[in-house]
Amino acid sequence: MPSVIQVRNLTKKYGSNIAVNDISFEVNKGEVFGLLGENGAGKTTTLEMIEGLRKPTDGSIQILGHDAKEKLTEIKERIGVQLQSSAYYSNLTLTEILDLFATFYPKHLETLDLLRMVGLEEKKDAYIGSLSGGQKQRFSIVASLINDPEIVFLDEPTTGLDPLARRRLWDNITAIKTQGKTIILTTHYMEEAEILCDHIAIMDHGKIIASDETHKLIEKAREPLKITFIDNQLTEDDKSDLKKLGNFKDIAGKDYYFEMNFKTQPELNKALRIIQARDPESLTVTRASLEDVFIELTGRRIGDEEDEA
Amino acid sequence: MMLKLFVSNLKMLARNKQSLFWSLFFPLIFTVIFGLFFGRENNMSGTIAVVNESQTQIATGLDKALTDSKLFNISSEKNFDAAKTLVEKSKISAVVEIPGTFGSLAPTDSKEVKVFYDPGSAQTVQILNNFIGGYLTQASFQIQKSQPLFSVKSEKTGNTTRSYSYFDFVMAGILGLALMNSSIIGIAIAISSYREDKILKRITTTPLPTWKFISMEVLSRLVVNLVQIGLILAVGVYGFHGHVYGNLFVLLGIALIGAILFQLLGFVIATFAKNPDAAQSMSQVIAIPMMFLAGVFFPIDSLPSWLSSIVQYLPLAPLLRMLRAVSTEAQSPFTNPINIAIVAGWIVLTLSFTIWRFRLSDE
């Protein structure tokens, strides 16, 4: 897979505040690349520098073979951008907005086809103000496709949406990917990133602290195996036996609902035998999730922050 | 690309009820109010009653002269006491009583015309007293068969065959006011809300050059300005007998140059204003004092001289002087080049600032 974006030593400073601190990564053609991180980790600043909205303090960005500093207009013609929170004229209808944006580009797709793609064809004569949150986000995404871009940037496309609207948007994003477009998205929903992204970079305090293909990143977890179980009469002896095998903790202070993380399969097997012997009410064996990895990687730092405060 | 943006901007302006109110309806209200007060019977200064109880030639002559002068509205009330009550209730400005034997030359007969007036209508009464005084002086001279030794002859500036009223003065002022308000406030609020709604940022992600975005924004608003000027002039001229003596196209040209200047001021405000509310208050801080100090409703030379020597350089002031030179005196706007110089200076200043500091999105 050829890479369509190469970011080298990218840095953005605002006075003494370093928003993005010397990061480098590549995005391959046709993949969904996820930038993950807490609010303020530098995701949006990074995205906006690549989109040409902000000037980097240092470093270089290559997009589709062009240097972002020199060929910005050519690049803009071939990328699509959805900004965090929808950003469109309130006094134009959806069709009118898309028709207007279409004229900004040398080539463009059919307005109605785009609206149909995200199930908004019945709203074609509506104003933005009359749309629900999910509809607004879907419109915002589809508006970024008006120029049939090769790369699509989605900044927190599902933030603030209810679970159903979020799932619907995942389908839309998947549909864009199957058209062969490259997608870069930011999110702070781990489940979403795990499902949608082929490659993930985790940002923290302006730095990329981990970057890999999604499944490899999860496998890198220190304790990649996990069980959860419910047992009302777990004895203290059993508890101390289990604690020797892995990371044992109750869930949200409940004294009957437990979770364990393991480094190795034999430890997991031993723990399973102990628990199964007790005939528990519920027992689930899974692998660690992206969220576990994320907390492993950033959790210590969040703790530091709280100590400072 | 440009045409579509221009048409879209027009659509948005037409759909924005609030901005339509301020740019079109609001100046029309001003025109109508000033028209009702000062337009139409534009030389009239108030209503008076004339109670003539004398049959003499001088008395009937005075009565007729007052009616024909068109300086006053003449009340139909011919009963002195009833008319006096009207004055006391401030329904009319004054009552002129011509006593029964006035005008006869017999030494015992009354030689005085009496005027009872409402102190609230001092201006009308002054005109009335001058008129009656002048008439009676003429009559006295005629009876004595003599000629006044000294007299005064006053001439208006400009073309003397044209009558130019206070309403004409104000109508040109309202043109300037409307241009200023809709352009400064319109641009400042529109651009700062585009920024707040991230529309400016979204535009920056497209290949559309900034200058095209800005120029279409300016151009579409100039169309609104044309409608605005057309409406004010139509209502003023056809509804209230206002006058435009000069070339209408020259007038429109000056108005549009003024509109561009005020839109640039709007961009300067939008550079500073963090949100539409701030933009609104900042625009008003600039527009409201300028409305009173730059001579919309009264000539700035009635201000103390230290103040008028400053306010004559406000952006609206030279614009109003040029608008009035064209509309009321049919002069060329180039008669006084200092006005053009001031307007050009302001345009250069605001344009340079806009180019220097205004950005569609933060960097």
Shape of chain A: globular
| Number of alpha- plus pi-helical segments of chain B | 13
Tell me roughly what share of residues is in helical segments of chain A. Answer: 25-40%
Write down how many β-strands of chain B occur, each being a DSSP E stretch of 2 or more residues.
4
Describe this structure in words.
The complex is a heterodimer of chains A (309) and B (363). Chain A has 309 residues and is an alpha/beta fold. Chain A has helices spanning 43-50, 72-78, 94-102, 111-117, 133-143, 163-178, 190-196, 214-219, 236-245, 265-277, 290-308; strands at residues 3-14, 17-28, 32-36, 58-63, 66-67, 79-82, 151-155, 182-187, 199-204, 207-213, 225-230, 247-250, 257-262, 282-287. In chain A, the strands form 3 sheets. In chain A, strands 6-7-8-3-9-10 form a 6-stranded mixed β-sheet, sandwiched between helices. In chain A, a hairpin with a 2-residue loop joins strand 4 and strand 5 (66-67). The longest helix of chain A is centred in the C-terminal third of the chain and has 19 residues, at 290-308. Mean pLDDT of chain A is 89; it is low at 301-309. Chain B has helices spanning 2-15, 17-38, 57-68, 80-88, 122-144, 166-196, 199-204, 210-240, 248-272, 276-293, 305-311, 316-329, 337-357; strands at 47-52, 73-74, 94-98, 114-117. In chain B, strands 2-1-3-4 form a 4-stranded mixed β-sheet, with helices on both faces. Chain B is mainly α and 363 residues long. Chain B contains 13 helices and 4 strands. The chains are: A alpha/beta (309), B mainly alpha (363). Chain A binds chain B through residues 51-55, 73, 76-77, 79, 81, 83, 85, 87-92, 96, 99-101, 103-105, 147, and chain B through 1, 4-5, 8, 11-12, 15-16, 197-199, 201-202, 204-208, 361-363.
